[in-house]
TrEMBL record:
Ranges of residues in domain HTH myb-type: 28-53
Domain of life: Eukaryota
Cleavable signal peptide: none
Gene3D superfamilies: Homeodomain-like
Listed name of the protein: HTH myb-type domain-containing protein
Length: 175
């Protein structure tokens, strides 16, 4: 997509003033500047030229609002209706940010989170493998107690219905 020059920007602004209520305003403007499609002109208007846009960076409160809004209103299939996010931002803070600015913030935040999450998982895997290596390299001694069939019979006594630990079963002769 070729960049918009100053003359193209002036033509778009003039066309929007002239045909602001026409449904085909971007088609009409594209006939005046044929290097651009109506879709490109509409996108450029909505994201850069619209005089109602706030061109300042998002503030922390606005960023928090975006995150909370998306957590509450995202559809079950993960769809985010960006025009509603932008409208609610304007209602809450009195500034109209472009959909692109809001999307870019959300996507960069999400990618950062995913990258951190991936790094954390890699660290956990590395730590687990180190633990396994340390465990396998250590010498372990196991003591096996051989139990005969006579050892499975418990004495009949008042304690017969009480809980019996495994240790007491293994050391039956010491009871």
């Amino acid at each position: 997509m070729p960049l918009f020059d100053e003359n193209s920007n002036k033509t778009i602004v003039h066309g929007m003033k002239k045909w602001k209520n026409r449904h085909n305003r971007f088609v009409k403007i594209s006939k005046l500047i044929p290097n651009y499609t109506p879709k490109q002109i509409a996108s450029h208007w909505k994201n850069y030229l619209d005089p109602n846009l706030c061109l300042d960076a998002l503030e922390n409160e606005e960023k928090n609002f975006i995150v909370e809004w998306i957590q509450k209103h995202r559809t079950s299939s993960g769809v985010i209706h960006w025009k509603y996010v932008v409208n609610d931002l304007k209602l809450r803070f009195g500034k109209r940010h472009s959909e692109n600015k809001v999307k870019n913030y959300w996507n960069s935040r999400r990618k950062t989170y995913l990258r951190k999450s991936k790094n954390e998982k890699q660290k956990q895997r590395k730590f687990k493998s180190q633990e396994q290596e340390e465990f396998s390299s250590e010498k372990h001694e196991f003591i096996f107690h051989f139990v005969t069939s006579e050892d499975f019979f418990l004495p009949k006594s008042p304690k017969a219905h009480s809980k019996i630990s495994i240790a007491s079963l293994l050391n039956y002769n010491n009871l």
